[in-house]
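Practice set, problem 2.
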Amino acid sequence: MAADTHEADHDAEAYLKGSQEITEQIATWHLFNFLTKWGSLATAVAVLLFTVWFMPNGGFFPAAIAAVVLAVAGWWFLRSKPADH
């Protein structure tokens, strides 16, 4: 009752190791991290701006103030810190 493993054995032999340089992987990771971090902040600021602006009894100036406060706080917490080593 042994299962046929021909397909699995063939896949194991056909496996090729990646050829991307580690510096390229690091650069790609840093770009992904940068875009995720700052893109999330931009999305949160935009959602806050439009939510406060278009809510009942809301307005542009309170929305702009709230968005600027969130943007500054987000920049403060998300900025790059100097390396400790």
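Problem 2, part (b): a different protein.
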Amino acid sequence: EPTFDMRAWIENPPLEGAAAMWALIAMLITFAVKIPAVPLHTWLPAAHVQAPTVGSVILAGVMLKFGTYGLVRFALQMTPDAFREAGVVVLVLGVVSALYGAFAALAQSDLKRLVAYTSVNHMGYVIVGVAVAAITLDPSVRTVALDGAVLQMFSHGLVTGALFLLVGMIQDRAHTREMGELGGLLKTVPMLGWTFVLAAFASLGLPGLAHFPAEFQIFLATLSASPAAVVVILGIAIIAGTFLKALRETFLGEPRQRWQSMPDLSAREWLAVGPLLVLTVGTGVAPSWVLGIIHRTTSALAL
């Protein structure tokens, strides 16, 4: 009997063989645009640059996850055999996305474009985690990979959402996002500066902050399933260089005369960015509170 019940499709995949592979290819193209994955990523930096701050926060924090949700919920579960056959291709796509996003971020002078390209990098790690889950035959490795991928989706929303809020706050004050026009802001707006430092360190995967447990699990599973793909870990070093360069140009040194009277964070701004930073630290220090929720689902998917 024809049905749209996803549970029925998962229990008894309606397609197999060539039909399943064509369906998977169609889904991969669709989800790659939404995630976005290289080479279908070009819309994202342009969208972020044109969007208001709240638009960028929602886009990064929520909407990009629809693509990776689709990989896990539809592609991985409804065409499992086809995904296993194509898993290496998807894995390479994830590695390329992560490394390209990191290198592209390093080349930016606009803070918002920089953060946008770090999204390509971080979502590349999610693709790697899902691909490893598809390739491996070991249920425990599959669970670790999916735990890491889903936790990375969650932590990316926190960290990148906070970064876009902070970049928006800088733009509201300075009317520019060009790092070369800023400088020395840590002395004029110390609270804004230190919150940006915290969010930047979280984005580069510093232990004790939200991305670390997610990326650690993804890399651990990748090492077990496809050791060559661990080259993706280079993305962390490149992102570290990206944010250290951004912090040096934007916040360190002597402040320009025109930024001397710049106001620091207001109570309203703290109310917006504070909860994201608290969750960022909480998830990094004690990820079990959210991993427990994630693991109940991913362990079922790993059967």
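Answer key, part (b): The chain is about 75% helix and 0% strand. The chain has a mean pLDDT of 90.
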